[in-house]
Prior knowledge:
CATH topology: Rossmann fold
Bound molecules: adenosine-5'-diphosphate, magnesium ion
Structural class: alpha/beta
Helix content: 40-55%
Distance between the termini: 7 Å
Number of strands: 8
Amino acid sequence: MYATERAARDSRGRPINKGRKGAGLLASVSPILRGYGMSVDVHRHGRGSIVALHSFRGGTGKTSITASLALAVAQHGARVAIVDTDLQSPGLHVLFNLAEDTLGRTLNGFLWGAYDIEHASFDIGAQLNTRAGRPITHPDSFFLVPASIKAGEISRILRSGYDVNLLDAGFRRLLEKLDLDYLFVDTHPGIQAETLLCLSVSDLVIVVLRPDQQDFQGTAVTIEVARKLAVPNLLLVINSVLESFDVEQVRLQAEETYAATVAGVLRRSDDLLRLASSDVFGLCFPDHPWTREIGRIADRMLSMAH
Length: 306
Ligand SMILES: Nc1ncnc2c1ncn2[C@@H]1O[C@H](COP(=O)(O)OP(=O)(O)O)[C@@H](O)[C@H]1O
Ligand SMILES: [Mg+2]
């Protein structure tokens, strides 16, 4: 959990969590949540933090960043899990080399009431050890809850939906059952019921964007929603920045535009493109500048926690 007193600040020292849990703000948010049939008790859970990564548009690098960031945090000794809530276009399992036919239990099954969420979690820590060539501190400390890649199950989500309140209950149960320090949520792009739910229960929301006018506009919408939902901490990560762009300029422009902290600026990388989501970049290229910047984002995140 994050302390209000030690909240993150932007580059000018302004607190980035101005609206945290204010009664007035919550009152204004409640109708939004109720409109979606949600009855979440916003930001109320015990041990462990929920970190949602979100982007307004797809293809920003959200999944790549989630995977490498979770790995970087685990390498600090934290117990982490990642949940793929991008039920319409799941992809995290691909980066972690979970073959389609091994994905017996998924988040979908939990949402349809077939089993408890922890039974859809894969302990993949040991597997990451060998591939990294250097061990993650605790081998049983890295879990993945994948989403189904079966066409029928994806279309069932699109057709019939699911009760988004179950997601909230599932996140809390995972934190407890797996004794997690961090639960990372890879969200579906755009704003819909799941997004509102994921943002509203998160301790930290990381908004991923590229230096692109469409991303800039969409990000403004996401940030406005996150602030209405009284998200305690919000950080921006800018990805795919061309070599010709000045990193500090990009950072300052974004901080000015959104009055939010930029936790990291990641370059566009041909190495990432070549890897083409076949693996976790941070595992394959531990000393790459992109991975080192992810490491700095992880440090920043960890320094915000108790
Ligand atoms: N900084 C980057 N430079 C080059 N390619 C990137 C970068 N970040 C992500 N990619 C590539 O962009 C594609 C989309 O990334 P992904 O993480 O799946 O995005 P999202 O989850 O936002 O849709 C992937 O092929 C990924 O390898
Ligand atoms: Mg994705």
